[in-house]
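lol ok so funny story. i was supposed to be doing the assay writeup but got distracted and ended up predicting the structure for this chain instead. priorities right. anyway since i did it might as well share w the group, maybe its usefull for someone
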Amino acid sequence: MKVGSLARALDDRVGGAGFLNRAMRKAFATHWSFLLGEIALYAFVVVLITGVFLTFFFKPSMEEVVYNGAYVPLKGVTMSEAYASSLEITFEVRGGLLIRQMHHWGTLIFLGGMVAHLLRNFFTGAFRKPRELNWLIGVALFGLVMLNGLFGYSLPDDLLSGAGLRILHGVTVSIPLVGTYLAVFLFGGEFPGGDIVPRLYSLHVLLVPGLLLVLVPLHAVVLTWRQTHTQFRKHGLKERMISGDPFFPVFLGKTTAWLLWVAGTIALLATVFQINPVWLYGPYLPSRVSAGSQPDWYMGFLEGALRLMPPWEFTAFGYTVTLSVLIPALAAPGLLFLGLAVYPFVERWITGDRAVHHLLDRPRDVPTRTGIGIAGIVYYGVLWTSGGNDVIATNFHISLNATTWIFRVAIVVGPVLAYVVTRWICLGLQARDRRLVERGVETGRIVRGPEGGFTEIERPATEEEKSSVTPPAPHPRPALPQVSNGDVPPPAKHRIREALHRAWDMR
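and the output, tada:
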């Protein structure tokens, strides 16, 4: 009774009871793939909590000190205060190594969950109207988290992170006209400067997390709660209908258990599997170079793009433009993120589909989109793999030059081949589904006829089975502008759109 009175009193003063009541009864689809985004969300929670712990002990300073801590092999070595505090967290703070590794593993799983969630939304068409804004926010989140991972990875000022900062400096300097000024401003002088770690620290713990704390709830809560949840097609469902479990208590119980599983998995990884052992690398010195150094997986595609690019440069108006650095550093991520951002609008322009969609596509039902997605994965994968071309060459006893050229060919041929093969597979799966609808479902019962031949007994497909494998109707042909003279063809952009539309809905 007292709880009810308190709830009514709060509702009278601040409101929200109506929204809370609707929220508790909101239906959530039960398919397992909808929990992929939860992995990223709960990994983000772990990263935030462990990050707050680390800020109590980390000193973001590049002032030189003489180490006299618990790690004996580095005693008496001159290093930055940032690196010394990283060693202190690792060896002298109770639980420091576990929290450090949880923070690192959590970031990797955070980004991995984001990629899985993004791919699920792409291949099922969850980005279509009315979710274009949510898709753009998701792409922005992916870029921010990737960038913030780079900033955090660079903070300990060890030899490995210093090599990454060296690449960042080279990329910044390669920007025409303003590159050298930007590098001096960012690093606080000639490389390595004296300000890069404090500035990255401010970005890593203040600016980017602040943006994430605004965008993550907007992406995961506000827009999702204001819209109908997406779901896969099945018999009896329509665009405005949803079948699933209520948020309370079913989905709340599931998502709480999922939070504990994600946090437990990160803790287990941090306990059992060593990651980023900065004490083995030593402090960063520009004169030292380490062989076989690799960035975290999410930055591997940039490393690969830099390694694949031929040594191209030219001089104009007294300035040297280093294309071998500028193109991989800007074109590779630019193609990835710009392509992701504009794709929903390009597809809508090609198909002319402006309807509201709450029912998802199966990837096989949209072979062109699926082919483009697999081509993008192959593009990313080739760049990522080529980031370890030296390790591959060493372990497989192949010429480094040969591995580089193999990847240069693969980055051009691989996505095209992946697109063609994927479309072919999708069309084959569609043909199998049509056969199921027309001829029935295989029962596994083999009978022998009077003539001695064997045939399989098939039963008619149920309406539910038919609805789950029947693709949506093809998009109507986009209207071309009318012209008064029939001999005058429509503008080129409309002819291109019509040709793309025909190719898109080819089934």
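DSSP finds 18 helices and ten strands in the chain. The two ends are 62 Å apart (CA to CA).
back to the writeup now i swear
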